Amino acid sequence: MTLIKSISGIRGTIGGNVGDNLTPLDVVKFAAAYGVWVKQQRLKDNYKVVVGRDARISGKMIQNLVMNTLVGQGIHVVNVGLSTTPTVEMAVPMEQADGGIILTASHNPKQWNALKLLNKDGEFLNGEEGAKILEIAESDNIEFSDVDNLGKITKNQAYFDLHIIEVLDLPLVTVKAIEQARFKVVVDGVNSSGGVVIPLLLERLGVDVIKLYCEPNGHFPHNPEPLKEHLTDLSKHVVKERADFGIVVDPDVDRLAFVDENGDMFGEEYTLVACADYVLSIKPGNTVSNMSSTRALRDVTEKHGGSYEASAVGEVNVVSLMKKNNVVIGGEGNGGIIYPESHYGRDALVGIALFLSLLADKKMRVSELRKIYPDYYMSKKKIELTSGLDVDGILKEIESRYQNEQLTTIDGVKIDFEESWVHLRKSNTEPIVRIYTEAKSQEEANTLADNFIKEISSIANI
Q1: Which domain holds residue 425?
Q2: Same domain, 209 and 314
Q3: Is residue 8 a contact partner of residue 429, using CB atoms and an 8 Å limit?
């Protein structure tokens, strides 16, 4: 079964059987449920929803289904076409819309697609709202409009430019200093939206851009998750072109990672650490990331006199805690920068602009910059779920076995040891259990993860 219905949206593989995969009928059903939910939020004469997509092969088909379903409900649609998740998030309040839908399966391979749903503020729905849409989708209470009250589709392709302008206008983005630094950068756009918008942003900042996989055709040249093992081509090109560093984003451009001038990974986890270091050096305050993110953010925050707190995994959880703690910057260790001065959503464009501002200020190479931050090493592994496996029971057993350690159970089980930690949780988007560990060396992190994989396998008899 490759149709995953969760509070964060609907995700699945294209084709196959209705209810088991992301078929046109499933797309229409969940788009219609979202339309009903939108109308329930505010009673008014006209409703408007922004719809955009990444460059996936199935994107145009899915977008047409979604838009025309909303039109059939009397909802006006702003079609921003090829876009990014953060661009659609920003477009929703700019359009004074009632919500937004981004059609992207983020880092999943090309056979996947998804409907990611936004509220009127351009932010992801919370758990209660997502559950309500799932409830509506399974009901018979979906009503469509008559022929005189259908919605209309308006095309607006200005939002890449508007997004870039907003980023360049941020007070902490030092445009002139970046221009004077004359950076040379290789961009891996994984043949999706980032291949268009990231070079546009960099060119506006006076950066010499070398494009790699920047044709938005949806044929991902490598696994689209921006991890070290998938970025060998980027590393080679950075060295070959004698570039200052390399940039890679995921297909919907809300995750960001860097490769230094030697072709070595800066570290996906350290994208947020570096950006936070820059922001906090000018505007001290608090930070938030999720429980599966590096301790280095805590260390950098405390260095600048602020406090750090971890949320449950999921952007909506991070944003909620960020608002509660009035933080100046936060995000997720997977390369997701959330900068409230811009908007409450992970945004690679904002991250790139802040990182360039930091480099221009420090006047050091990317490899030298990495050395100023605490050294932590992370292992990210997973176990495939099998039918009938009692995952909650397994996690309860782990919790019991480690009850004398520092435990956090707001999202799976996290065990904090003195020099390391492990976080075990069910994925919201894939049928797997994720096992994240962090330690003072890669070997220690890998060993810790392998030991917990063995322990879980023993408990589950798999």
Answers
A1: 377-460
A2: yes
A3: yes
Instruction: Quote the CA–CA distance of 399 and 381 in Å, as a whole number.
Output: 19
**DSSP calls for 92-135:** HHHTT-SEEEEE--TTS-TTEEEEEEE-TTS-B--HHHHHHHHH
Q: Quick check: pTM over 0.85?
A: yes
Nearest to 326 by CA among 357, 356, 284, 278: 284
- C-alpha dist (Å) from residue 146 to 35, 41, 151, 153, 189: 15, 21, 10, 17, 43
Task: Judge contact between 222 and 230, C-beta under 8 A.
Answer: yes
Q: Measuring CA to CA, which residue among 291, 280, 241 is closest to residue 262?
A: 241
**Domain presence at residue 170:** no
Same domain for 214 and 255: yes
Q: Are 29 and 5 in contact (CB under 8 A)?
A: no
Helices (H) and strands (E) in the chain, counts: 15, 20
pLDDT digits (tens, 9 = 90+) for 380-417: 898 886 766 788 888 999 999 999 999 999 999 999 99
The span from the CA of 10 to the CA of 101, in Å, is 11
* Number of separate domains in the chain: 3
What does the buried/exposed string (b/e) look like for 237-270 if buried means 16 or more CB atoms within 10 Å of the residue's CB?
bbbeeebbbbbbbbbbbbbbbbbbbebbbbbbbb
Answer yes or no: do 43 and 126 share one domain. yes
For residue 384, give both structure tokens: 């495939």
3-class SS of residue 288: strand
Tens of pLDDT, residue by residue over 144-185, are 999 999 999 999 999 999 999 999 999 999 999 999 999 999
Four-point Cα dihedral 214, 61, 430, 411, nearest 10: 90
Are 106 and 202 part of one and the same domain? no
Query: For residue 173, which amino acid is it?
Result: V
Cβ neighbour number for residue 128 with a 10 Å cutoff: 8
Burial readout 86-108 (b: 16 or more C-beta within 10 A, e: otherwise):
bbbbbbbbbbebbbbbbbbbbbb
Q: How far is CA 149 from CA 50, 74, 76, 144, in A?
A: 19, 6, 10, 9
Phi, psi of 437, deg, nearest 5: -135, 155
H/E run at residue 280: helix 270-282
Tokens describing residue 93 = 């309040």
